[in-house]
Every structure is written in C-alpha cells, then in structure tokens.
C-alpha cells in the first residue's frame, strides 16, 4: 500500500473537495482522482461517494480513515524520532579511549575544557581492545580512537594522526631493593610480581616479550586501572609500569619510586580513523584540542 495515496486520501477527507486537495498537494486533479481510484481497486471497496456534494465517505471509507490516521501518526512519530536521533548523532563524537591508554590529565579536560570551548558537541568516550577498536572504526560505529599505535597490526585501512611519544617506566614502593638502581633490567624482575594491564593490551604484550627475551617468568597480575595498580604497589603487592605522559600529568605519591628501563619500551600514541573517511568538524576540533593539551604538558 502506497503511503502517498494515504496522504492524498487524508487531504480529501479533511477538505471534502478534490480541487482544494489537489491544490494543497501540488498535483493535478486528474492525477489525484486516478490515485484514489487505484487505492479503491487495491482495497476492493468504494471509499468515497462521489455523487454527493460536498463529498461524503462511505461506511468503508470512514472505517478505513480510522486506520489511515493511525498509520500517518505512526509514520510522523517515526520521522521525528529518527530526525532527533540524527541530530544527536551529528552533535556527538564517538571516541574510543582505552582505559589502559587514558591519561588522567587529558581525559577530564575533554569533559570540562573541551565542552566549554565547544558546547555544541557531546563526546561519548568508550573503552575497547585494539582489535575491537579497529573493527568499530571500519564499520564507522565510532569516529576515531586514541591508541598506543600497535606495531604488529595491518594498519593500511587506517589513517594515523600522531599525538605523543611515551616511554614506559617501572614504579616501585619506597624501600624496595631495586630503588637504588639507576635503571631497571627485566633480569632484575625475575622474582617480582608484575601488576600490569589485561591481555591484549600493547603494554602487556611488550612486557611479556621483554620477559621472554630476558628468559624470566615472573608472576603477572592483570590490573586495568592505574590508580588501583598504584595502591597495590604502595601496599607492597608488587611493582607496576607507567608511561611517562601519565607521570607528567599526574604527580605520583611520595612513597613511590620511578625508574627507567635499561632497554626502553617506547610507544607512539595517536588517533586512528578509517582511511578515506574525512574527520567531521567536531572530530578535527577534538584532535586539535588533545594535541594542544599534550603540547602544554611537555
């Protein structure tokens, strides 16, 4: 059933006049008449008693109009709902910012300073593994992602916008036996409990590779939040790893010691987006905001 014919019929029912209905609909009167005849043929009933003036609808026509108004109302509600959703989507930036990448300094500034500077945009931050991130970028479910750039992934389908370079340091509790070492080797960590991120994270992968290269098998415990890892280190449950950008952004507690690795683990951090997809104006504003925030932090 053609929705257009239902709208034609509603105009005739409301105006009780073919000529006025045709003028309102911006079509010719013969075209309107042919459309209504086709609808009646489709339904197998006569909807309008054309012998009477003003026009009168038959009993079947009156009953059918009850359904027509319900259909048109549902269509109107659906159109409004989708239009509102589209408007919200156009003002929203869907950003993947993994918790293992998130900077304690920059992310809160997105919720505060960025929103103050650009109140028309709503940034929706989500967490995901690198594999899930790549899948969601390709399907355009999200606009962009800030990640530690993986070195073992095929990134030909993506564009990369650099933001910062960051190295990994070791965080120890005060009075730890290794605190007097100017730098830490992985051989020194053979009997340590390592508190680090979940499997699948790039930092975890690099740490496991370094342990294997050093021919050690320390106990590794997954901790997804840096604040939790810091507290466990303070309480003597193990040692953890932290990136230099997090060190600069969030001063660490007096009872924690930081030491560099003697074989540095260095990450490139930046935005990934689907290759060929032009960033929206809002996405460009967000990228520039993060880059400027990082520059101020250096």
How does this structure look, described?
By secondary structure, this protein is α/β, with parallel strands linked by helices. It has two domains: about 5-85, Winged helix-like DNA-binding domain superfamily/Winged helix DNA-binding domain (Arc Repressor Mutant, subunit A, Orthogonal Bundle); about 95-295, D-Maltodextrin-Binding Protein, domain 2. It is built from ten helices and eleven strands. The protein has helices spanning about 5-15, 20-25, 30-45, 60-90, 105-115, 130-140, 200-215, 225-235, 245-250, 280-295, and strands spanning about 50, 55, 90-95, 120-125, 145-150, 160-175, 195, 220, 240-245, 255-260, 265-275. Strand 1 (about 50) and strand 2 (about 55) form a beta hairpin. Helix 1 (about 5-15) crosses helix 3, helix 2 crosses helix 3 and helix 5 (about 105-115) packs across helix 10 (about 280-295). The longest helix is centred in the first third of the chain and has 33 residues, at about 60-90.
Query: Helix content range of the residues, please?
Result: 40-55%
Mean pLDDT level? 84
Domain tally = 2
Q: What separation lies between the terminal Cα atoms?
A: 65 Å
Shape assignment = rod-shaped
Number of strands: 11
Q: Order of SSEs, N→C?
A: HHHEEHEHEHEEEHEHEHEEH
Strand residue content: 15-25%
The number of helical runs is 10
Question: What about the largest sheet?
Answer: 9 strands, mixed
Taking all Cα atoms into account, the compactness measure Rg is 32 Å
Structural class: alpha/beta
Which CATH first-tier class of the largest domain would you pick? Alpha Beta
Might you state the CATH topology name of the largest domain? D-Maltodextrin-Binding Protein, domain 2
- The CATH architecture of the largest domain can be given as 3-Layer(aba) Sandwich
Low-confidence stretches: none
């Amino acid at each position: 059933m053609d929705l257009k014919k239902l709208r034609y019929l509603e105009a005739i029912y409301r105006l009780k006049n073919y000529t006025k209905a045709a003028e309102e609909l911006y079509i010719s009167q013969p075209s309107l008449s042919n459309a209504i005849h086709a609808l009646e043929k489709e339904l197998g009933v006569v909807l309008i008693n054309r012998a009477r003036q003003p026009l009168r609808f038959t009993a079947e026509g009156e009953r059918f109009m009850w359904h027509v108004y319900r259909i048109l109302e549902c269509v109107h509600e659906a159109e409004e709902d989708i239009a509102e959703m589209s408007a919200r989507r156009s003002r929203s930036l869907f950003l993947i910012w993994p918790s293992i990448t998130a900077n304690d300094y920059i992310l809160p500034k997105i919720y505060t300073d960025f929103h103050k500077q650009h109140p028309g945009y709503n940034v929706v931050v989500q967490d995901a593994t690198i594999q899930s991130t790549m899948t969601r970028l390709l399907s355009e479910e999200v606009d962009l992602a800030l990640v530690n750039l993986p070195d073992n992934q095929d990134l030909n389908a993506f564009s990369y916008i650099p933001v910062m370079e960051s190295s990994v340091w070791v965080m120890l509790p005060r009075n730890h036996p290794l605190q007097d070492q100017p730098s830490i080797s992985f051989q020194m960590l053979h009997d340590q409990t390592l508190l680090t991120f979940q499997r699948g994270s790039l930092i975890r992968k690099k740490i496991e590779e370094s342990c294997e290269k050093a021919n050690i098998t320390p106990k590794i415990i997954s901790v997804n939040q840096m604040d939790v890892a810091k507290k466990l280190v303070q309480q003597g449950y193990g040692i953890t790893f932290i990136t230099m950008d997090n060190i600069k952004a969030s001063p660490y507690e007096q009872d924690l010691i930081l030491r560099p690795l003697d074989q540095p683990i260095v990450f490139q951090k930046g935005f990934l987006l689907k290759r060929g997809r032009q960033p929206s104006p809002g996405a460009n504003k967000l990228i520039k905001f993060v880059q400027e925030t990082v520059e101020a932090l250096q």
